Amino acid sequence: MPTAIIIGGGPAGLTAAYELQQRTDIRPIVLELGDDVGGISRTIEYQGNRIDIGGHRFFSKSNRVMDWWLNLLPIQKTDEASQSITYQQKSTTIDAGEGPDPNEVDDVMLVRPRQSRIYYRRKFFNYPISLSANTIMNLGPVTMAKMGMSYMYSQMRPTQPETNLEHFLVNRFGRELYLTFFKDYTEKVWGVPCNEISAEWGAQRIKGLSVAKAIKSALAKPFRSSGDLRQKGVETSLIERFLYPKFGPGQMWRKCAAEVEAKGGEVLYRRRVESLRVEGDKIVELTARNLENDTLETYSGDYFFSTMPIQHLLRGLQTDVPSNVREASEGLVYRDFVTVGMLLNELKIRDPKTPDKKYPADTWLYIQEPDVHVGRLQIFNNWSPWMVADPKTVWIGLEYFCNQGDAIWNRSNDEMIKLGREELARIGIIDADQMLDATVIRVPKTYPAYFGTYDQFPLIRGWLDQFSNLFPLGRNGMHRYNNQDHSMLTAMTAVDNLVAGRNNKDNIWDVNTEQEYHEEQEDAKAEAKPESQSETKAEALTSV
Ligand SMILES: Cc1cc2nc3c(=O)[nH]c(=O)nc-3n(C[C@H](O)[C@H](O)[C@H](O)COP(=O)(O)OP(=O)(O)OC[C@H]3O[C@@H](n4cnc5c(N)ncnc54)[C@H](O)[C@@H]3O)c2cc1C
User: Fold this and answer.
1) Last residue of a domain, one of 430, 448, 466
2) Are both 470 and 383 inside the same structural domain?
3) What is the pTM for the complete model shown?
4) Which residue among 7, 226, 485, 516 is least crowded, i.e. fewest CB within 10 A of its CB?
5) Per-residue model confidence as pLDDT tens digits over 175-229
6) Is residue 256 assigned to a domain?
7) Ligand 1 in contact with 270 (CB < 6 A)?
8) Is the CB of 482 under 6 A from ligand 1?
9) Which DSSP category does 320 fall into?
10) CATH code of 318's domain
11) Is 9 in the pocket of ligand 1 (CB under 6 A)?
């Protein structure tokens, strides 16, 4: 029986394993570095509370991905008389009572409303930033007028060529709006000035958003319906409802791993892939360190799928790597991430409409305050009530974007908790004495950066493509700013190619660039149907 060795048990690796079993006779063996599956999309448990690293909304413009998720975890029954979602280009109505009840069943996908606001100048701004009374009141008429004028100027005299993210943002939003909402936060996230980040990042993540759309959206709002869960045609950062596994994203990937094992595949933990042996244009075997007993193990296979960071893959390939390819790979930059999970009696911030509730309705808040390091705040109670052990407590995640080895990363856990507690108290989000417990999680390589040697990436891709049975997949595996859906689609497309006997890998590399084009074509076909029209609203560019 042919074998596929899959490096990494995150969304891309497990999707590859699952798809191989569904559609081929190839047996997958997944080698995972950590002691759990899910990769960045795993759920970590601490004293019965669950942390989602980053807060993972499950949504996709791809029907294939939506079907795949709902096949593993069916959608919950809802209180509404009927729940309309567009499904396989058709509008489908799920009757109340049809899906599982999350109070009774664990394997279930929740439907969650999204509320996320920006916390800036100790005030809340709607997210996406819109031309609302809230924005006008918070900013004041003078700032608004300045923003309007600088927007008009940017439309009359856009910077060309648009080579970096600053150009991209100023051309679409005007300098004043850029300086107020985008510059500081984006630099907090990436740790470098916007003019050192490729414009491609903006094109990929925030393509299609503009002030013109915001105005159009504000005018169109009264005429929209809100039942479309599939939300095709909605810009990526605008989705307003999303799916979420009852116990966080890791539940999806544990379920998937269990299915893979049940069908005869293997998922092996604490295996660090260190080297790959090459013969001609093929990989023939790889070596992994078993971290349980510090021994080396060899796995031979017919196909090799890699979701480990592409830089590490190149370091492990036992063949002469051309110097320009090596330099391009070594120059790739990553951004890392520290989360402080904090348990509290209550938050100081409340919704005016529900003053007795101990926290506001936001799933997360963007912290744009320049005087603190914390970048985002997750309120896990709002993601899923089942993320929190004691519903009388509030369970939050403070997110710090950093670089491995920098002052944030190197802080001890105690220092990190002290920092988080002090910062949230300083900006008025908590009272420091309300903290009950806290924990710290460090996650390396959360963001593949579009700077460093990223512009030389085609050299790496071109060279790797010579290995006919090697498939770099996913987020760090392809150095792409992919969400789960695009990471999964790269794996699905690789298996499509095996099934079709297609050797060219362009369609795998094109996921998340060409994909949008195909989705737009599908949207155009479906446009006649009112159900497929979903909400479009421009939002701030802070989405990460
Ligand atoms: C803050 C944040 C928020 C996000 N929000 C969302 C969201 O709302 N919705 C969404 O869909 N996506 C979101 N994402 C993106 C999502 O996390 C990723 O797209 C997804 O996890 C990528 O899957 P992957 O399998 O490609 O990679 P990963 O999740 O990185 O998995 C790779 C796996 O490979 C393993 N590995 C690495 N090196 C080796 C080695 N040498 N040997 C063996 N194993 C190895 C790792 O341990 C890991 O388990 C977010 C990401 C972040 C950082």
Assistant:
1) 448
2) no
3) 0.88
4) 226
5) 998 888 888 888 888 888 999 888 877 776 665 556 666 655 555 554 444 444 5
6) yes
7) no
8) yes
9) P
10) 3.50.50.60
11) yes
